[in-house]
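Support case: NAI complex. Customer-provided input:
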Amino acid sequence: MRMMLFSSRPYDIESFRVAQTSATLRGFEAVDLHFREARLDESTAVLAEGCEVVCPFVNDQVGADVLQQLAAGGTRLLALRSAGFNHVDIQAATQMGIDVVRVPAYSPYAVAEHAIGMILTLNRKLHRANNRTREGDFSLTGLLGFDLHGKTVGVVGTGSIGRVFARIIAAFGVEVLAFDPVRHPDVLALGAHYVELDELLARSDIVSLHCPLMPPTRHMINAESLLSMKPGAMLINTSRGGLVDSVAVVEALKSGRLGHLGLDVYEEEGSLFFEDHSDELLLDDVLARLLSFPNVLITAHQAFFTREALEQIAVTTLSNVLAWGGGAPVNVVLPDD
Ligand code: NAI
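Agent response - structure generated as follows:
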């Protein structure tokens, strides 16, 4: 089976090659891998001609036009190497006879631990402290943090990542509030309380987003919801950029209403993240403004990026392809998901 991986970086190539060679008993070598650095879009879909399987990454835009071209070129399976699938028009894929499979969970620890890292960094201003000491500035003014112990932390979305996050943050001695249409017993077992989103926002000192991006969750953090948050609260988004209205967040930071912001994802990240643009002018004024605040920490969609997660992504993606090829697909994404 010929499979083309778009948006491939050296670490993708290595993890897929290692998975193929270290697990030959699983038959992974039957998948003929072709790597392309280019993003998958209307201008690059033609590269996949003759590939039965196409493997996009999170910032590849797989809309109806792209799917049309892929279908015409013989593609029958989209094997997403991600958990999220908001970048694919699932309805259109189904209509065109292209199956979609994904990696529902690879390392919830990777993302949850990154969110915790962002909280500790922003609170104790480690990013600024590191810069200072390297310049010979050993002063502490401006670096004052707060004890996490005794604070209230809101977890929005208690799926696999949100649950790991809740478990780790609970160990700091915080009160955990959760919001999710589906209540999970593991979260209740931590002593956490499920509340409505309004109450979570109003009571939390720190809010961490772990729910998927879907039409109802787009801009769930907006001018109105920011006003309902505790003054000076911290917002962490390691989920999807579109959950947060970035312009509203800039205003909330300027007014001081929002005390800290940690973003691993950004709604306009598509043309920037995963690439080195350091020799170019940054033309995104909202991102440029966000980067100018000392109380904002931005990472470029790296929360998933651990050795264990890459290994698991490669193994699950190849297993998905083989299961589909064998007529018993697993981890299928359906239009109603
Ligand atoms: P999951 O599917 O296990 O859990 C998602 C949870 O969100 C479910 O419990 C669901 O009931 C809940 N949910 C749905 N609608 C909601 C709403 N309106 N409000 C609150 N909760 C809602 O997904 P998982 O694996 O925990 O991933 C969460 C998100 O993290 C993914 O959708 C993906 O966008 C993001 N992610 C980010 C990565 C990164 O590198 N930054 C890597 C992997 C995932």
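The two ends are 27 Å apart (CA to CA).

Case will auto-close in a few days if no follow-up is received.
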